[in-house]
Amino acid sequence: MTGRNPELQSSLFLRSLAGEVTSIPPVWLMRQAGRYLPEYRETRKKAKTFLDLCYTPELAIEVTLQPIRRFGFDASIMFSDILVVPDALGQKVWFVEGEGPKLEPLKDETDLAKLSVDRVLAHLDPVFQTIRGLKQSLPASTPLIGFCGAPHTVATYMIGGGSGTQSEIIRRSYEAPGFVRKVIDQATEASIRYLKRQIDEGVDAIQLFESWASAVPPALVEDHIIAPLRRIVTALKAYAPQMPILAFPRTMASEVVRATAQLPVSAISIETGLSLSEARKQVGQKQALQGNLDPLLMVTGGDAIDRAVDAARATMQGHPYILNLGHGITPDASIASVERLLKSVRG
Ligand code: 1CP
């Protein structure tokens, strides 16, 4: 765990998470392992399905390491997906090439009763093997980020059944609030067990992806987003007080960012649509901000990247900052753009 290895402790990423303002910000990219890399596309062919890729430690380790080898990012993120949790609970989950995840949606409490948190850790054993393998093979100075989806986001998929169905959970919470609460509770409980085990296996930080925060109306923010996150963060802080936690409430609503920052998390990741200057007003002085660069810059390239990096650094002067995008890097991104980004940051 964090603390044993001085090289890790002096990494830019962990120093920023500890509240230090570093002269050069650490850089990593959400979805840094992915289809924009030719070596990823090669490895992807070795697994039949996307879930097989996630559950084959040798392949998951390889694709996690690829962007570290190529770019030397300041942090790595274990290769998996947020939807391994519903899969582990016993829900039917599959991925359609080019479309994304599909799930057999939960209609009611009868469907929910077929799932079980007790099977989660055994099912996710390959992920734990991946973490152990990564701790052996990553450079000693590169921290490993573990993650899961935040409960509202995971429940969005469990109830809606796939991409583009994020209003279904909202509709159901007006019609059947008790059912939705139970789904969110199930995702929360599974996530706590899953993350504790990731910590046992040696991850150096945890990121919670609330990718559908933008779909939640103000009246539901506390129940859907904040209370479940508080449960997770409280459980993890009791289990491993030093473990840095990053939260990514993907929304332009600054009050949701503020409420998330009131939890004992080390960093808040900011989506592209909210300005860093506004985000800075919503978080504590010691809480790092992460992200916000437009993923489209990695597609278009050029000196717009330098301008965006300079602007972000100027806004974040005097505040801990982790350079990242406002959302995942896309399959049409270019390697030259990522190289330019790193050059722009590191000189
Ligand atoms: O490199 C990394 O970042 C690690 C791997 C990783 C992570 C952290 C993947 C691999 N997925 C995720 C998280 C994830 N998965 C999120 C949270 C972050 C975000 O908002 O993007 C979400 C919402 C998912 C669900 C998911 N899985 C989607 C989004 C669909 C939608 O509803 O818009 C998609 C397209 C996937 C498939 C997937 N997961 C990961 C990759 C590389 C892919 C694409 C498939 C492939 O490249 O083969």
Provide the fold topology.
Blueprint: H1 6-9, H2 12-17, H3 38-44, H4 50-55, H5 57-71, E1 76-77, H6 84-89, E2 93-96, E3 100-103, H7 109-113, H8 120-123, H9 125-137, E4 144-149, H10 151-160, H11 168-175, H12 177-201, E5 205-210, H13 218-239, E6 245-249, H14 254-261, E7 267-270, H15 276-282, E8 288-291, H16 297-300, H17 303-315, E9 321-322, H18 335-346
Helix pairs in contact: 3-5, 5-9, 10-12, 11-12, 12-13, 14-15, 17-18
The chain binds coproporphyrinogen I.
Coproporphyrinogen I binds at residues 30-35, 44, 50, 77, 79, 81-83, 95, 100-101, 147, 149, 163, 209, 211, 328.
Please, could you describe this protein's structure?
The protein has a seven-stranded parallel sheet. The chain has 18 helices and nine strands. The protein has 347 residues and is α/β, with parallel strands linked by helices. Helix 3 (38-44) runs antiparallel to helix 5 (57-71) and helix 11 (168-175) crosses helix 12. It is globular, with a radius of gyration of 19 Å. The structure holds coproporphyrinogen I. Coproporphyrinogen I binds at residues 30-35, 44, 50, 77, 79, 81-83, 95, 100-101, 147, 149, 163, 209, 211, 328.
